[in-house]
Amino acid sequence: MKIEGMLKEEFKEKLCQEARSQNIELNENQLEQLYMYKELLVEWNEKMNLTAITDDMGVILKHFVDCLECTKVISDEETFIDVGTGAGFPGMVLAIYYPNKKFTLLDALNKRLIFLQEVIDKLGIKNVKIIHGRAEETIRINNMYNSYDASVSRAVAQLPTLLEYTSPYVKVGGKCIVMKGDNVEEEIKLSQNALKVLNLKVEGKTEYSYTVDGEEYNRSILSVKKLNNTPSKYPRNYGQIKKKPL
Ligand code: SAM
Q: Residue 149: CB within 6 Å of ligand 1?
């Protein structure tokens, strides 16, 4: 059942319950900030294309709770980069959940970053930095190799390409946290070469599901460990990545 136009307290209550049903606890401050984020997302989505999901239950489940599932594979990592963050998923949601960890949100589309700056300003967020650029270019321009304890990403590219974008940013011993659907085994099979040449190893998979409007969504999160330095030829430029994915 679609519940449209929830009042603020209803929204927070529902979000709290849905997160709790996935064993994720949210405090009042997090609930308040997520509510404000949702309000801005819906408002800004009327003037620019940020997301196809703007109904309350959709935002609660497909955006907020979905992104919060990453907390199950995060422990003592302190610094994160969200590559292809779009309207802030999962990076902004995780920054709200972890006010003491640091997040860099990167995207090639500047208009989405203008929205994210508004979220930062309106919510008073202190632990997020945003960067405009393509992942494979920004890393060289800003010399950002081996800079983060972990990367996070959702819905950006097929796994071999995604790992080429993200793993160079991660420190040796750190990990790429990859949010995917339920066909992830197939993608892992297709990523054997990428894992080998980028010095990576899939070290864990977390599966979860939720139901929206009677439809079940089966999702998974991969933890991919960086075993050694990325060879300096990676990431290649966009043309090469597209023409010959790893
Ligand atoms: N992660 C968000 C989510 O799950 O809602 C956004 C997903 S959207 C389908 C993909 C985003 O990745 C877009 O905002 C796009 O601009 C960005 N993107 C794709 N390739 C990129 C690259 N090479 N470097 C930076 N951003 C990229």
A: no
Tell me the C-alpha distance between 141 and 68, whole Å. Answer: 31
Average pLDDT, the chain: 95
Domains of the chain: 2-243 (3.40.50.150)
DSSP the chain: ----S--HHHHHHHHHHHHHHTT----HHHHHHHHHHHHHHHHHHTTS---S--SHHHIIIIIIIHHHGGGGG-SS--EEEEET-TTTTTHHHHHHH-TTSEEEEEES-HHHHHHHHHHHHHHT--SEEEEES-HHHHHHHTT-TT-EEEEEEESSS-HHHHHHHHGGGEEEEEEEEEEE-S-HHHHHHTTHHHHHHTTEEEEEEEEEEEEETTEEEEEEEEEEEE-SPPPTT-S--HHHHHHS--
Query: For ligand 1, what atom is nearest to the CA of residue 153?
Result: 1
pTM of the model as a whole: 0.96
Alpha-carbon dihedral sign for residues 64, 67, 73, 78: negative
Span 94-114, pLDDT tens digits? 999 999 999 999 999 999 999
Q: Which atom of ligand 1 is nearest to the CA of 84?
A: 12
